[in-house]
Amino acid sequence: MSRDDAARAYSGRVTAAPVPSLVAFDLDDTLAPSKSPLPDAVADLLLELLRRVQVCVISGGQYGQFRTQVLDRLEARGLTPELAERLHLMPTCGTTYYRWAGHGFDQVYAHTLTAAERDAALAALETEAMRLGLWETETWGPVLEDRGTQITFSALGQAAPVEAKTAWDPTGERKAALRDAVAPLLPDLEVRSGGSTSIDVTRKGVDKAYGMTELASLAGVALDDMLFVGDRLDEGGNDRPVLDLGVRCHAVEGWEDTADYLTGLLPTLPEPTLPEPTLPEPTLPAVTPSAPA
Ligand SMILES: [Mg+2]
Asked: Which one of 60, 131, 204, 241 has the lowest number of neighbouring Cβ atoms within 10 Å?
């Protein structure tokens, strides 16, 4: 949808609310379809947002997904170093943190699990998924993934198509059953339902609320001055800890909804303090000098 269409579709949900100095977003199903690159409309709106305030993206995904889903798209739409300086990246629920470092994005910290914690989490997820009949044999890539800071169970594999993932657990019952079975086996770890087919295990107390609290000190922005946008603010959802933390939240259903919301939010924010993004020069075909006749 074009920005004008988005503006027309927008139905005036932003009322007089405190003006945030930082807006944080979930990634999958908030800024982009699950595991997919940001649509151009969302990338352009984020760049407009960066001209005005600081922006954070926090997700269960790894940095590699931030690179392909977010950064590649923002760069293609004209991300400048000045705008990049206002961007905070929190992969794996904020257990890792990346900032612009002049030449690219550098890792500022990573809170990894111990080898014993990772082994216990992998074993509990596999055993309980098999016991509950949730261990699928036809998958798209590995079901269990050791991300260092997080162990992730993806019922159909990391690369499963969106339709298959949506059909696997439409009511969320299967994920909830697995989470409830695994959590008591890992009392020192946090067990949480992640995306549509996934369960994430992290160090206890390390979830998106942890990341947002870290962000408050790292960015020097009080939680009261932040706004969080996510698609899973429901009870048990992976965005819920941010709401429970007391951060002002806005619930969305997919990136189109987010684009509509941002289109309405932008005019309520401070005037831009940075220049517009500059679209990169199109790559011209190499000119081969013609040989003298
Ligand atoms: Mg999400």
From this structure: 131
